[in-house]
Design goal:
The complex is a heterodimer of chains A (about 240) and B (about 400). Chain A is of the alpha/beta class and about 240 residues long. In chain A, about 30% of the residues lie in helices and about 30% in strands. Chain B has 2 domains: about 5-55 and about 275-405, no CATH class; about 60-265, no CATH class. The chains are: A alpha/beta (about 240), B alpha+beta (about 400).
Chain lengths: ~240, ~400
């Protein structure tokens, strides 16, 4: 059964400064169904990051309606939005955004702490997800003691920790080496296979090839939205 | 998120960022410590100035004999013999006089004092045991003149430090030694502490003998050169002046105050100076306290503003991961409270320690007023908490992405 989980209905975002009016997002509409793996592509300045922040409830659109899992985001209070960010969305940032000088275990436990999960359960779940992303032996390393690829895997474990319906990834491989990027993508595929919806921003066509659907943007608008039938395998052609 | 969890999050954030935490605590420690040390230093100085003024005898009244007048003929200086030891005793024992604490009859004159090969011309004060209290004179060794010495007209002497140096040499203890004044042999029974002062009336350059001995043996007179009185409190100075004045008029059988054969001089001038000095000092002290509180407060404000502003991205991240506004504000508030209280207590400790060390090094008084400690602590804690909480509250209001992008 196909259930829409993200409905973007004529979304616009305009940044207003004294002198300029910058249109970051101009009347964008699309629907993403449960279980999809979507890549959003486009050059920098195309509005893909702005779109991602709106989808992640980190920002509000200037115009238009965003319905997430049947709920109109516009009508929600600040605390309700916090709950949505906490439980329904797992966000993976380009810059990883781990708490500095904090162990990987504590980083992964943080969203669960905000969700009010008891400490023993937090430790168990965080350990489980860190093992799943291959960092079972790095539980007590701090973020500056591990590589960029490992940091991103910690961020993915953190995004997964509350078993959210949607994983949003903003250039997840942007700051890490190619070999590690492949590991991250295979991880995303596993996660997608388990039923999580994944929306990922990238400007690298190679990375986008891992997705099943590719939305391409330019100047704040969607210029193409197509199925990606030829999903690449793990081996890379130019490696 | 439970409050216990938030506090443990605050503690872990504080302990993980040792440098930042250390600097913030240092800022608060210096803010509070310097205020306490400065106020303490000011109060010690004020107290030592007051003490010096009081050492002159701040509640002091002096009765000087006036010329006795016969009709319109005023007697010369030599006729100033109107005060007697009996007057002094009557003042001291009269039930009508309630505002006077101590009465010190005195006869002073200059004489040559000789010991062995040394001699000096100095002031001889005929006095009673009351002298030390009225004039705030402290004994360095031995003892002062006793009531028995006065009654028995003993030939004993108490020397000021200048006299000791002149007659016996520096650092010599002259107790039990003898000296000659106007042909009479006196035994030294005590020495007084140095009081400082110079020129006429230098209290270090004096020889104290029993008043009776001075009157009858040395100078052959029956009158006193003055009676010094100590009022019970500074407020009772005027009352004492009036009580004693009317009492003596009656005793000398004079009905008209203009005919008085004595005059009473109060140290009102000194008191005025003292209170003017004290009020100047109080103003100065308040100024110093206000400025150091301001400087300390600005220091604390800066360090809190900087540490919280630096963490606006962290606030954005926490919001992105699902932290509610209240949770973030509570965490930052808890951190600010922990920082200011830890810094505050260390600051109080170091401020008091610094004051103590200064007082030891400058051998001045060690005074800590609880109000200054409380004021410094309260102001610093309030400023620390406000500027730890306010920027965090502002950042928590932002859209998560705005906070994440904050630079």
């Amino acid at each position: 059964m196909i259930t829409p989980i993200i409905i973007a209905d004529h979304l616009s975002k305009v940044y207003q400064t004294e002198a300029f009016e910058t249109v970051a997002l101009a009347d964008v509409s699309f629907t993403i169904n449960k279980g999809e793996f979507v890549a959003i592509m486009g050059p920098s300045g195309s509005g893909k990051s702005t779109l991602m922040h709106i989808l992640g409830a980190l920002d509000q659109p200037t115009k238009g309606k965003y319905v997430l899992d049947g709920k109109n985001i516009e009508t929600l209070s600040d605390d309700e939005l916090a709950d949505i960010r906490n439980r329904q969305i797992g966000f993976v940032f380009q810059a990883f955004n781990l708490l500095p000088r904090t162990t990987t275990l504590k980083n992964v436990m943080l969203p669960m702490a905000y969700a009010g999960i008891p400490k023993e359960k937090r430790v168990a779940l965080a350990t489980k997800y860190l093992k799943m992303v291959g960092l079972g032996d790095r539980l007590n390393h701090t973020s500056n003691q591990i590589s960029g690829g490992q940091q991103q895997r910690v961020a993915i474990a953190r995004a997964l920790s509350l078993d959210p319906a949607i994983i949003l990834a903003d250039e997840p491989t942007g700051n890490i080496a190619t070999a590690q990027a492949e590991e991250i993508m295979s991880l995303f595929k596993d996660i997608n296979d388990k039923g999580h919806t994944i929306v990922m921003i990238t400007h690298e066509p190679d990375i986008a090839q891992h997705a099943r659907r590719i939305i391409t943007m330019r100047d704040g608008q969607i210029i193409s939205d197509r199925k990606n039938s030829g999903q690449v395998k793990f081996t890379h052609s130019h490696q | 998120m439970e409050i216990r969890e938030i506090i443990s999050e605050s503690l872990s954030s504080l302990t993980l960022n040792k440098m930042r935490t250390g600097l913030a605590i240092l800022g608060i420690v210096i803010g509070i410590g310097s205020v306490i040390a400065l106020i303490s230093l000011g109060q010690a100085t004020q107290a030592s100035i007051s003490a010096r003024i009081e050492s002159l005898g701040s509640n002091l009244l002096t009765i000087n004999p006036g010329s006795s007048s016969q009709g319109s003929v005023r007697g010369g200086a030599g006729s100033r013999t109107t005060l007697t030891l009996e007057d002094a005793t009557a003042i001291a024992t009269s039930p009508e006089i309630t505002s006077v604490k101590t009465v010190s009859p005195e006869y002073s004159g200059r004489s040559q004092v000789v010991t062995g090969s040394n001699n000096t011309n100095t002031q001889i004060i005929g006095s009673t045991p009351a002298y030390t209290e009225v004039h705030k004179l402290e004994i360095a060794s031995g003892n002062f003149i006793t009531p028995n010495d006065v009654d028995s007209m003993n030939k004993v002497a108490v020397l000021g430090p200048q006299v000791v140096t002149d007659l016996f040499g520096e650092g010599i203890d002259p107790l039990g030694q003898t000296l000659r004044i106007s042909g009479h042999t006196f035994t030294v029974i005590g020495t007084t502490m140095a009081k400082g002062g110079s020129g006429f009336g230098n209290q270090d350059d004096m020889v104290y003998v029993p008043v009776t001995t001075a009157q009858k043996q040395l100078f052959g007179v029956k009158h006193l050169s003055s009676i010094a009185l100590e009022a019970k409190t500074a407020d009772l100075m005027i009352t004492a002046q009036n009580e004693v004045g009317y009492f003596l008029l009656a005793r000398h059988k004079l009905s008209d105050p203009t005919q008085a054969d004595f005059s009473i001089f109060s140290q009102q001038d000194i008191l005025n100076t003292a209170s003017a000095t004290t009020s100047t000092f109080t103003t100065l002290l308040s100024g110093v306290a206000a400025i150091s509180l301001l400087v300390g407060g600005i220091g604390i404000m800066n360090i809190m503003l900087v540490t919280v502003t630096e963490r606006i991205r962290e606030i954005g991240l926490r919001k992105a991961l699902g932290a509610k506004k209240k949770t973030i504000i509570t965490q930052f508030l808890a951190e600010a409270i922990i920082l200011t209280f830890v810094g505050g207590f260390i600051g109080i400790f170091l401020g008091i320690l610094t004051s103590y060390l200064i007082s030891v090094m400058t051998s001045s008084l060690f005074i800590i007023s609880p109000i200054s400690v409380l004021l410094a602590f309260a102001v610093s804690v309030v400023i620390g908490i406000i500027f730890g909480w306010y920027p965090a509250q502002k950042a928590a209001e932002l859209q998560p992405i705005e906070a994440l992008r904050y630079e």
